Amino acid sequence: MDKELDKSGQRKLECADVSRCFQLLERIIDGNNIPDSKEIIQEKLAKCQPCFEHFHLEKAIKEAIHTKCTKFCMSEDMKSDIRKKIQEIKLDAR
Amino acid sequence: MSESQRKKYSQEEKDSIFDGEFMPHMDSMYNFAFRLTFDEDDAKDLVQDTYLKAYRFINSFEQGTNAKAWLFRILKNSFINEYRKKSKQPAKVDYQEVETFYNSDDVDYQGTTDLRVDSVKDMLGDEISNALNSLAVDFRTVIILCDLEGFTYEEMAKILDIPIGTVRSRLHRARNLLKEKLRSYAQYMGYKTDSEEEEEN
Fold first, then answer.
1. Given this model, what pLDDT does residue B95 score?
2. Chain B residue closest in CA terms to A81
3. Which of A47, B34, B86, B133 is the most exposed place for a label (fewest CB within 10 A)?
4. Strand partners for A48
């Protein structure tokens, strides 16, 4: 990615290394342990428009999936059935 | 530690591991199973089968390691080996999607789509869920494991039996496909996309 801002001080409109930057940003969003990740994000987002957009969109989608998708839970009847089966197996094993 | 080196657990230890480390994951397992099968009974059978196998093979579980990842790996294998085989309906796979995106670790990272952050934030859970559910099962799986269940790339690699590089590339492709579905949905529902805004200006 370009290290410097363009002459007007705006973010660069094109990223010079999209593959490397996007992969790095995705690894950071996914919580991988990347040294200096805060500084990397700060720099990339301040200087590169594609990185800025990619980061915020990926983050929004990840958060939407995590918070908005229903977590299907088992009914108590189902849980009870499974516990019974397991109990039978345990007794057989003794 | 190899399985042959690992000590066999006593009956008390087995019960303690099973009740203390395995049973708390029943809801997460069911959620994963349901999102794979889209059927309550099949999902229940998968979870039950996973627990029965976990008990049978408990000596190959190393106490103190990640029990949830270990259980998810069994469930995923059961789904592939048994559920898909016995299911009367073939798995819903968009083969063109798979052929185009699936067979290589090389990922073509492109610029962002014109899907807007605000549109994503405005979408309802059902809209996001429907888009996720419409993905081919292997793409759906990586998103569920990463974004819904919070597994790390390393854990996902173990659950899915694939290298970490493949986890990364499959996840990236899955998210691109999801973005496409969400973008179509956003347009259909009348949310603005960047391209529409450009056309207006």
1. 44
2. B48
3. B86
4. A12
Q: Are B45 and B77 in contact (CB under 8 A)?
A: no
Q: How confident is the model at residue A69 (pLDDT cuts 50, 70, 90)?
A: confident
Q: Is B125's Cβ below 8 Å from some Cβ in A?
A: yes
Average per-residue pLDDT for chain A: 85
Assess if CATH 1.10.10.10 describes domain B103-193. Answer: yes
Residue contact A19–B128, C-beta within 8 A: no
Per-residue confidence (pLDDT) for residue B151, from 0 to 100 = 95
Q: How confident is the model at residue A37 (pLDDT cuts 50, 70, 90)?
A: confident
Alpha carbons A21 and A41: distance in angstroms, whole number: 10
**CB-CB: which of B115, B148, B168 is closest to A23?**
B168
The answer to whether B47 faces chain A, any CB pair under 8 Å, is yes
Q: B148: helix, coil or strand?
A: helix
Specify the CATH number for B1-89; select among 3.40.50.300, 3.30.1330.60, 1.10.1740.10, 1.10.3720.10: 1.10.1740.10
Q: B45-49, B189-193, B195-199: which has the minimum mean pLDDT? A: B195-199
**Among all residues of chain B, which has the CA nearest to that of A94?**
B11
Interchain CB distance below 8 Å, A69 and B148: yes
> Of A29, A32, A24, nearest to A64 (Cα)?
A29
